[in-house]
# Entry
Amino acid sequence: MKKILMVAGVLAGGVGIWTTLGTTQAQQANQNFDITTLPVQGNVYMLQGAGGNVAVQTGEMGVVVVDTGLEAASGKLIAAIKKLSDKPLQYIINTHVHPDHVGGNDAMRRAGVTITGANVAGNLTDATQGAAIIAHENVLNRMSAPTGKQASFAFGFWPTETYVSGQKELHFNDEPIEIRWQPAAHTDGDSLVIFRRSDVVATGDIFNTLNFPFIDIERGGSIQGEIDALNNIIDIAIPKHEEEGGTYIIPGHGRICDEFDVVEYRDMVTIIRDRIQNAIKKGQTLAQIKTGKLTLDYDARWGGKTGFGTTDNFVESVYKSLNSKK
# Structure
């Protein structure tokens, strides 16, 4: 099973970045990174091909981006965003700390501006170099390091604005945007980003359509927090009457979804959690639980063959989470 690996020292690109899915930074640089832009609804788009999915909100005031993909894809991602809008990139929101979602932070921050004022006519006047990066405080804690330790990301990648609990709110492009913390879910710094007028939710890796969830135990994730976060997405989403649509969901990886897709995923995660919990109560070891194939009826749909979403990785993370000290 492949682990997230920390690269010691600062790489040529300016960050000591983790490799993802067994892919080194040099290999990432050689990838094509074909960016596909998909309209979701309202003034929100989903961009695929840069690593994790990227949500983009555009309007007269500027651009908001949710997550920034892999570092090596940042050039193409910035070019794709400029095709959507010639307005300045002002806000970057990180849903969590993993490098396929924050690797482009530094490049995209430097490509943006922070608007600090307006004249009497309402025109934006005072622009400084660098977009604001917003995330939960735990994302900053994971990127930085205590005194004397090597930070996992260089300073330019760090959030410039953080919140501690509950939610942070923006009003941009005539749309309320809510950034809601989901404690101990996929990680300990997960945020849901809700575009209220467009009726779109960006979930980061709490939800994806490609494989079992990756619960990053080492970075504060837990199975119960994952289920709680999925239930929160379901509470937010409102479907159209007897048809697909309503609130649309942008997952961390995979296709655009609606509430039904999240319900199906939540049910799968909960059922497997209950099976593993029952096996633990019977005194079974992790090896016995893996041999018992408690995910068999879901493997064809969500069992990843490589990366973090493999069946073994999911089962092991659930087992460790259920056995952790409360």
The CA atoms of residues 178 and 202 lie 10 Å apart.
